[in-house]
Design goal:
alpha+beta; Heat Shock Protein 90; single chain; 5-stranded mixed β-sheet; 5-stranded antiparallel β-sheet; elongated; Helix Hairpins; Beta-Lactamase; 12 strands; 380 residues
């Protein structure tokens, strides 16, 4: 009898200790600052702590087994059911963001962490909720601010571009006006000098062509339309463009082509690639011509750049090169070191290469001439 009484007292102490621990964890659950709730197998709210009650506007202690779906807007119910199904099938915790509705009808943005569990023959869904409405508002405010800054930046660029266009077009238009006045004056003479009239008209023609090139290059630079790409033979294009550059310019120069055999095709827009390579060759030819290089030469090297799965093209001339103080501004719109240049060629070239997934840069290392590099991704 004494042994039985001792055993009963021991059991009572164990039950009391277990009850104390249970009450402790229940109190922690109830007073936790995180909103927690449990759904039964049918999706009804089986248990909910104080934070969740406050968040959803529920009355604590009222067990009405409200369906959790009643707090989800109709447009999101289908998505919610898919989440539950996936949580049950995978057995893994699922996270999402949803708009939830309180009892009074007000809405808030919430993040949910969902876990599906089976205990014996019963199953339950535990949910941890957090109100992220303030966070979403801050994110929206930040996005609105960035959008506003982007719009201001666009306006600034537009203003700068308009100023640049006005500046670049003003010179040829002024020249056309002067040539036209001269032609009218020559024609008004008693014995018009047709040779002078012809020279004046030719001057108008040259300046009109210059103005047209200015507008064309500006439109190329500002164009945002989608490009069409294809698999192209880079070695073949380089050979063709070098021949075209040689036939267009009076300067006779040596060309050395170091092309990698069996180079895979690159994925790019053919016209863009031809335009960029031709522009780089033309810059080198003009620089060698102006500096009167005794034996002008251009070397074009093509090889595989395996670390980025791209082809690299290097174009090097033996002209005067680029001054160190000009390197940082070389690719900026409207910067030029040429007397008759408008400073758009390299800016357009870089934008075209980047639009095709590549890069274009100049090698600042010392040495004769200028060295430009560009990359283009392989088609596969």
């Amino acid at each position: 009898m004494l042994r039985l009484e001792r055993r009963n007292r021991e059991l009572e102490r164990m039950v009391a200790a277990a009850t104390k621990v249970r009450d402790h964890y229940v109190d922690l659950y109830e007073s936790a600052p995180i909103a927690c709730l449990t759904l039964d197998a049918k999706g009804a709210i089986a248990d909910v702590n104080l934070s969740a009650c406050s968040l959803l506007g529920l009355e604590r202690g009222k067990k009405d087994h409200r369906a959790f779906e009643s707090h989800i807007p109709k447009e999101d119910v289908k998505y919610w059911r898919q989440l539950l199904k996936h949580a049950k099938q995978s057995g893994h915790q699922q996270g999402c963001e949803l708009t939830l509705r309180r009892i009074d009808g007000t809405r808030f943005q919430a993040s949910l962490e969902i876990r599906y569990a089976e205990v014996g023959s019963a199953s339950a869904i535990s949910i941890v909720l957090a109100d992220i409405s303030n966070q979403k508002r801050r994110e929206k405010d930040t996005m609105d601010w960035r959008k506003e800054m982007a719009e201001l930046r666009k306006m600034q660029i537009a203003a700068q571009t308009a100023t640049a266009i006005a500046h670049e077009l003003n010179q040829p238009l002024l020249a056309i006006s002067n040539y036209s006045e001269a032609a009218v004056k020559f024609l008004g003479a008693e014995s018009p000098d047709l040779h002078k009239v012809t020279k004046a008209v030719q001057g108008c023609q040259r300046q009109a062509h210059r103005a047209g090139e200015t507008i064309h290059e500006l439109l190329d630079y500002l164009s945002l339309k989608e490009i069409q790409v294809e698999a192209i033979n880079l070695n073949e294009i380089i050979g063709q463009v070098v021949d075209a550059a040689r036939s267009e310019h009076e300067l006779q120069f040596d060309s050395v082509l170091l092309l990698e055999d069996g180079l895979p095709p690159v994925l790019a827009n053919r016209i863009h690639v031809e335009k960029v390579i031709f522009n780089l060759l033309r810059n080198g030819i003009e620089a060698m011509h102006e500096s009167e290089v005794p034996q002008p030469s251009i070397t074009v090297t093509v090889y595989t750049k395996g670390d980025v799965n791209s082809a690299q093209v290097t174009i090097q001339d033996n002209g005067p090169g680029v001054k160190e103080e000009n390197l940082q501004q070389l690719f900026k719109p409207f910067f030029t070191t040429k007397v008759k240049g408008i400073g758009m060629g390299l800016a357009v070239s870089r934008s075209l290469i980047e639009a095709n997934g590549g890069q274009l840069w100049i090698d600042p290392s010392e040495g004769p001439g200028a060295t430009f590099h560009l990359t283009l991704p392989f088609a596969s």
